[in-house]
């Protein structure tokens, strides 16, 4: 059923290709080979990540170091999408992001800020930095908050960490404003990944570990979506009240096995 | 109209009696004398605060230092209310609160925590502490989050600060849980203040600077409520979509003038 008439794949990265950790992370068994097999099959492929703790360059280097066949040009990530929005709307951001993400905004005018961009700032989520971003927002006549994702939390080798979505909610509540989310699960983000791949949604499959942001988001764009039982997957995801994947697979390797048999 | 048949007053403290600041704060003009006049009049009086940056002892000392006639026994505050709940339900809290509030929980068993209590932790709202509170919550089969208030922000002499409500929202979202709010605007909190005063809601008036937490909360308990134009009051509060005070007064002194004329 789910593997019919596929021309393109969107892959989530963290939790599908590798498990992240403070020290870098480790590939998930079979995933390095699975990416090679997808590329050899002639299927279109795009990596679709909400990663905002590093520039795409640095992120891709880390994955290459683990053995993955991946290049910067194949990655759809929130920061470049946010930069397009900032330029289109003449927005000058106050950045609350990870130090390593700042270079993605190098060409953006940041003087005299008229919006706040929040990413997974990790150690930069200090009391002082949150208050500062809050003051910038509350001082605007009509606060504009752009959030690079809306994830709740993620797993690192040293434990679970609050993701950008939690801090986004704090600022939303304090300023009585609704953030504009760039990144998964936003429709515009999936659509730009599909456009970059040149495949319509009905011929594409998203594979991810996040039931809401990967699976639910992709399905709302008309794509099929699989949930892997790796990364942040939890058994209770299979009873999710709103989202039901087109299929579960134990890991990326199993999904690719099934897909390639159908081709 | 609003001053008829009154037997008891509930007073918010910060923004009504004084303006807070990193250095302690300053009394609002006329408020020291207004408290004395209420006491001399024979009206029942209770101070009803969401203050959670200090024990009641320390808080009352600060107010006495400014000249206010106030004692610990006259103060209704969230931490003691939370302690009653913790004891009743055999809850052992992981505390994410201000250092100076910790003594209020001295008699509470905190080993092997089975809930999280969050207050206005201020400088204790670090990335590490928020992640730790999150991990305690997400590790429970049914997460219990008790929040000492749900304020959005407050003003100190060095600027606006995010209040406990913003951090409560972050944890609520990350854990998909609803916090139980102790303190204003919770009905149970106002009711315990009324019980301590021995006055039914229809004979009591709340006076506060917070349109939602003071005025709206008290009105939902069947009390009348005034908003003062001091503290965090903003002119746009007078167009609030849901809450309409029984009256506005410029400050506590004006409210007391009108009240005492009616007696």
Written overview of the protein:
2 copies of one chain form a homodimer. A 6-stranded parallel sheet of chain A has the order 5-4-1-12-13-14. In chain A, strands 6-7-8-11 form a 4-stranded parallel sheet. Chain A has helices spanning 31-41, 56-65, 78-88, 127-138, 164-175, 187-197, 211-220, 252-262, and strands at residues 8-11, 18-19, 26-27, 44-48, 75-76, 93-96, 115-118, 145-148, 153-156, 159-162, 180-182, 204-208, 224-228, 247-249. The first copy, chain A, has 8 helices and 14 strands. Chain A has 263 residues and is an alpha/beta fold. The first copy, chain A, starts with 7 loop residues before the first strand and ends with a helix. Chain A is 33% helix and 19% strand. Chain A has a domain at 78-181: 3-Layer(aba) Sandwich (Rossmann fold), CATH 3.40.50. Chain A is globular, with a radius of gyration of 18 Å. Chain A binds chain B through residues 122-127, 130-131, 134-135, 138, 152-153, 159-163, 165-167, 169-176, and chain B through 122-123, 125-127, 130-131, 134-135, 138, 152-153, 159-163, 165-167, 169-176.
Provide a brief overview of the structure.
Chains A, B: GO terms for molecular function: inorganic diphosphate phosphatase activity; metal ion binding; phosphatase activity. The first copy, chain A, is an alpha/beta fold. Chain A has a six-stranded parallel sheet. In chain A, strands 6-7-8-11 form a four-stranded parallel sheet. In chain A, strands 2-3 form a two-stranded antiparallel sheet.
> Measured on Cα atoms, how large is the radius of gyration of chain A?
18 Å
Proportion of residues in helical segments of chain A: 25-40%
What is CATH's topology name of one domain in chain A?
Rossmann fold
Average pLDDT of chain A works out at 95
Q: Low-confidence parts of chain A lasting 5 or more residues at pLDDT below 50?
A: none
Highest-level CATH class of one domain in chain A: Alpha Beta
The number of helical elements of chain A comes to 8
Oligomer: homodimer
The second-level CATH architecture of one domain in chain A is 3-Layer(aba) Sandwich
Strand order of the largest sheet of chain A: 5-4-1-12-13-14
CATH superfamily of one domain in chain A: HAD superfamily/HAD-like
Main sheet: strands, sense, barrel of chain A: 6 strands, parallel
Instruction: Give the overall form of chain A.
Output: globular
What proportion of the residues of chain A form beta strands (DSSP E)?
Answer: 15-25%
Biggest contact: A-B, 29 and 28 residues
Question: Secondary-structure element sequence of chain A?
Answer: EEEHEHEHEEHEEEHEHEHEEH
Distance between the termini of chain A: 13 Å
> What structural class should be given to the helix and strand makeup of chain A?
alpha/beta
